[in-house]
Design brief:
Structural class: alpha+beta
Order of helices and strands: EHEEEEEEHHHHEHHEEHEEEEHEHEEHH
Low-confidence stretches: none
Helix content: 25-40%
Number of strands: 17
Strand content: 15-25%
Number of domains: 3
Mean pLDDT: 89
CATH class of the largest domain: Alpha Beta
Largest sheet: 7 strands, mixed
Length: about 375
C-alpha cells in the first residue's frame, strides 16, 4: 500500500479553477484515507508549489498564492530552497484539467523522474487532448463519430473561401470547437457562413486548430467512465447530462444556479447502453488506459456517436463511482494503489561506450 501520494493540480489552462477544485477534493479525500498527501499546485506563471498548509479552495483565490516552490527529483520532490531531504512519492495523481497538465507533459515529467502515476500516460493524454487526433483514432478503430473537418488557423486565413465551401458540405448548423480545450470553452453552434466566421474567430483566439462538426439535432449527452483494476476495467453507470442550450455549456457544468441536472443511471434502452459500454471497452482494450477516463457520447434515438474522451475528467469522475464521500474516497484509494503496484521493466545497456570504437577518429573530442 502506498504511503505518500502527490496530488497535482492547477496549471496554465482555461480550466485552472476547475482543476483547483478537483485537486483539493482529491487532497482532502486521500488525507481522510490516512495517506501522507503532498499537494502540488501549478501556478499559471509556471513552476510548482507545495505546502501541507494547503487545505481548501480558498487558499488559491489570489493569482499567485505564497507557498514554497518545489521541483521534481528522482522518485520524489525536493524544496527549491534549503537543504531538505527529498520526499519520496509512492504515487502521483493528476488533477490538472487542460493545458500541459492534461496533454501528456506532466505525465512525461513524472515518468522521467520515475514517479508512478495514477493517471493516463503520455501517448494517450496527447491523443485525446487533441480533438483532431481523437477523431483520427476513433475512425481508425471504426467507432461511430459525426462527420467533421479540422481547420488550422493558417489554412483558414490563407484559403477562407475554399475552407468555407468545404465546411458547407457538412450542412448547417455545425459545432465549432477549439481542438485542445475542454469544459465546452470556446464551443459554439453556427447556423450560417457568417456565424461560422464568428465562431472560428473565437476558436482561434483560444487555439490554433479548430474542429467543425455536424450538429446532431435532438441529441442527448451521455457519459461513461472507466478505470483500470489489475488487468480488467470497471465501468461506471451511464450518466445523462441535461441542457437547455444547443450544446452543454461551461456554466451548465460548473457555475452555481446555471448547473443542470443529470440522471444516473441514464434512462436509455438496453441496446443503446450496451453499445456505449462496448465502445468504452474497445477504447480501453486498444489504449490500455491507466487511471480513470471518461467517454462522452451523443445519442439520438438508437444512433450513438463517440464524441471525446477525457483523461483527467471533472472531479476525476468520483461521483460516477460513489454516491457518498466515503465511496469517492475508496475509489481514489483504488486508483493510487493500482499506480503504486510495482511493474519494473529491464533496461538493456549495450556497453558500447566502453568499447574503443572511436580510437582512430579521436572519439567525439572537440577539434
Amino acid at each position: 500500500m502506498p504511503k505518500t501520494v502527490a496530488v497535482f493540480f492547477g496549471g496554465n489552462s482555461n480550466e485552472h479553477e476547475i482543476s483547483v477544485i478537483t485537486g483539493m477534493l482529491a487532497v482532502n479525500l486521500l488525507r481522510a484515507a490516512n495517506y501522507r498527501v503532498i499537494p502540488v499546485f501549478l501556478p499559471r506563471t509556471g513552476g510548482m508549489m507545495s505546502s501541507e498548509k494547503m487545505r481548501s479552495v480558498s487558499d488559491f483565490r489570489t493569482p499567485c498564492p505564497q507557498f514554497p516552490y518545489i521541483r521534481l527529483t528522482q522518485g520524489g520532490i525536493i524544496a527549491e530552497r534549503g537543504h531538505k531531504k527529498p520526499t519520496h512519492i509512492d504515487a502521483a495523481l493528476n488533477c490538472c484539467h487542460g493545458g500541459m497538465g492534461e496533454d501528456g507533459t506532466l505525465s512525461a515529467l513524472l515518468a522521467w523522474h520515475n514517479i508512478p502515476s495514477a493517471s493516463p500516460d503520455v501517448p494517450i493524454s496527447a491523443v485525446f487532448m487533441n480533438k483532431r487526433l481523437t477523431k483520427l483514432a476513433a475512425r481508425g478503430m471504426q467507432l461511430p463519430v459525426l462527420p467533421s473537418i479540422a481547420v488550422r488557423e493558417g489554412e483558414w486565413r490563407a484559403e477562407k473561401g475554399k475552407t468555407l465551401s468545404k465546411i458547407g458540405e457538412l450542412g448547417y448548423p455545425v459545432v465549432v470547437k477549439p481542438c485542445r480545450l475542454g469544459s465546452s470553452i470556446g464551443v459554439t453552434v453556427a447556423s450560417s457562413p457568417e456565424e461560422l466566421e464568428a465562431a472560428l474567430a473565437l476558436a482561434f483566439r483560444l487555439d490554433d486548430d479548430a474542429l467543425i462538426e455536424t450538429y446532431l439535432e435532438g441529441k442527448r449527452d451521455v457519459n461513461c467512465a472507466a478505470f483500470r483494476r489489475g488487468e480488467t476495467y470497471e465501468f461506471s453507470p451511464l450518466e445523462e447530462v441535461f441542457s437547455e442550450k444547443d450544446i452543454l455549456t461551461f456554466g451548465e457544468k460548473y457555475e452555481g444556479e446555471q448547473r443542470r441536472a443529470s440522471q444516473i443511471p441514464a434512462d436509455l434502452p438496453a441496446p443503446v447502453a450496451e453499445k456505449i459500454y462496448k465502445i468504452m471497452q474497445t477504447l480501453c482494450e486498444n489504449f490500455a488506459f491507466r487511471g480513470v477516463v471518461r467517454g462522452d457520447f451523443l445519442v439520438a434515438g438508437e444512433e450513438i456517436y463517440f464524441n471525446e474522451l477525457n483523461t483527467v475528467p471533472g472531479s476525476l469522475a468520483c461521483y460516477l463511482f460513489g454516491k457518498t464521500l466515503t465511496e469517492s474516497r475508496n475509489f481514489l484509494v483504488s486508483l493510487v494503489e493500482e499506480a503504486a503496484a510495482p511493474r519494473p521493466k529491464e533496461v538493456l545497456i549495450s556497453g558500447i561506450l566502453n568499447e574503443n570504437i572511436f580510437a582512430r577518429g579521436k572519439g567525439c573530442k572537440r577539434r
